[in-house]
Design a protein that fits this description.
- Mean pLDDT is about 85; it is low at about 190-195.
- With about 200 residues, the protein is of the alpha/beta class.
- The strands form two sheets. Strands 2-1-3-7-8-9 form a six-stranded mixed beta sheet, with helices on both faces. Strands 4-5-6 form a three-stranded antiparallel beta sheet, with no helix packed on it.
- About 30% of the residues lie in helices and about 25% in strands.
- The protein has helices at about 25-35, 50-55, 120-130, 140-160, 165-175; strands spanning about 10-15, 40-45, 60-65, 70-75, 80-85, 90, 105-110, 130-135, 180-185.
- Helix 1 (about 25-35) runs parallel beside helix 4 (about 140-160) and helix 4 crosses helix 5 (about 165-175).
Length: about 200
Amino acid sequence: MSNMARPPKRGVFILECRDQKDPGSEGRFLAHMFRLMAVPHQHIDVQTKEQFMAMLSRSPYELIHIATHGSVAKGPKGERFVGLWFPDGTVDVAALQNLKGVLRDHSVIITACLSGQREFAKALITKGYCKYVVAPTGSPKFHNSIFFSHILYHQYFILRRSLSEILKRYDSKYKNPHQFAAIPLSRYGLHFVRD
């Protein structure tokens, strides 16, 4: 049965691609945390763009956590986000054009540097139909991503708060140093009703 036929289960699908220089595995940390919290999850190490795109469309869980690096380019106004980094290249806005609604009923959390760039989030939402994209407009270090993720998932699964409520509280309580933001489907005038 496809994702569109059955709503995803409560839990987190972790897609991680690490560089050899990374200080640790964000995905393994999250998997351990989810085991302690009794949250259903699956952690997958991905190494190619093609593997990532195939896995992205197969999440059995409502939340998809993407842990990789942001590919950035220098421009006249500083660094700008180009796409998600993989050893064989970048998943950019053009690569998202073929999502064809496979993210319907899912929300996507990304911790890659600068991945909260508007065009990338818009493509995930308008092509994949995901409910939310949560991503930083800044460049969080490994420990900042872990800190943010712990707060987000504790409040979501244990305290049962919505993603938008969690981000508002994070902004006011923790000063949100990397500008993690939740971008909703409704921002683009899209609303989906379950068949």
